[in-house]
Amino acid sequence: MTQPGRMMIRVEEPLEVLPAGTAEPILTVLPVGLATREELPVATAFEDPPLSLAGRIFWTIVGIPEWLFGLASVLVGLAILAALPLLQFLSLGYLLESGGRVARTGRFRDGFVGIRKAARIGGMALGIWLCLLPARIVSDLAHSAQIIDPNGRVAAAWRLGLLILLALTFAHIVMACARGGKLRYFFWPFNFVWLMRQLRRGVYYAQSRDRFWHAITSLRLPYYFWLGLRGFVAALAWLFIPVSMLAFGRLNRPITDLLAFLGALLLTWVLMYLPFLQLRLAQTNRFRSAFEWLAVRREFRKAPWAHAVAFVVTLAFALPLYLLKIEMVPREAAWLPSLFFVGFIYPSRLLTGWALGRAMRRGDRPRHWLFRWTGRLVFIPVALFYVLIVFFTQYTSWNGVWSLYEQHAFLVPVPFLGM
């Protein structure tokens, strides 16, 4: 939804991410929800006068339901992607990008990427589902008639009526999507009148092709997939050795018990850095940033309690999700538990990005030693408690010891990696 009083231009080239520490991040000029520089406000002598206070309040109230619906569409979409092999990296990439944007700008609202666009896609999905509802009802009636009298005239009439209804429904859905896919178009029966007018003008095909291609490219799916894949590899590189050492404790031998104890200590140390290292990768768009743990220590000195709050929330929100790993769910319903995983992990990514952004805005000024040391005291007990719970989850989770490697707080947001 574009408010009056703003003249917009389109620039289709993707954003370039500035290195960490740049004084003027590019993304600070972007409106909320844009993944590329698609619409940038430009002040000209020909633009409309600015909106009054009443106008701004009106457009804000009108946009709130659309924004909330877009947020719900994002969460559902991420849950569905997370339950699909390989496409899981799109979900992880979006979560990392959301936290990375907050880290670059320091604003929470910049972490809600593509909300308006998701509202349009979600509206199309809801409209298609509602349009197919009459066809599903007629299909059930036709199936019942077929069972009662397979060769009767009533069953044949129901089959014919179902075919006609499906053809009309398909045509209506195509015309509603061709008009723009807004939810109200799926309830308007005269979309064909608009389509006939556009076809008579002779430019409809070219315009539709360009708009469709622009909509697909603006989603930046390759970027999110590549970011999610790199974030997954970086997290797995940090977690593999300590988790493997922890898993050896299942053998119940003196040497393996000692190895598991050392693995628990090493995992505790890794957990205190990993959330911020992953977000540094998204913040700078450099893979090696995920291994610059000394840089995380320097940033902690500048915002110790922001880091402590983000760390506690990240681990606290991850623990309840282990209850959903007790029993395997059917593959067709895998997106339902993934919805809870995304809903808990999304806020923790935003908070982690906020902590990094807060440290970046302070420049080179460390906080008072009292804040630094009290912040450090929070990390160790929280990390130790998390490792203790993770160790015992191998006896309650469906996949047993393999569940130790399914660290949903840092890897893909699903209960089972096998999905």
Mean pLDDT: 81
What's the Cα radius of gyration?
26 Å
Question: How many discrete structural domains?
Answer: 2
Helical element count?
14
Question: Helix share of residues?
Answer: 55-70%
Estimate what percentage of residues fall within beta strands: under 5%
Q: How far from one another are the termini?
A: 36 Å
Order of helices and strands: EEHHHHHHHHHHHHHH
Poorly predicted sequence stretches spanning 5 or more consecutive residues: 1-48
How would you sum up the global shape? globular
Structural class: mainly alpha
Q: Please give the number of β-strands.
A: 2
Largest sheet: 2 strands, antiparallel
How are the strands ordered across the major sheet? Answer: 1-2
Polypeptide structure, described:
With 419 residues, the protein is mainly α. The protein folds into 2 domains: 278 residues, no CATH class; 95 residues. 64% of the residues lie in helices and 1% in strands. The chain contains 14 helices and 2 strands, in the order ββαααααααααααααα. A two-stranded antiparallel sheet has the order 1-2. The radius of gyration is 26 Å and the shape is globular. The N terminus is likely disordered.
SSE layout and pairing:
Layout (H helix, E strand, L loop, with lengths): L7 E2 L30 E2 L11 H30 L5 H18 L9 H17 L1 H16 L4 H27 L11 H11 L2 H15 L2 H27 L6 H18 L2 H11 L8 H10 L1 H15 L16 H27 L7 H25 L26
Antiparallel strand pairs: 1-2
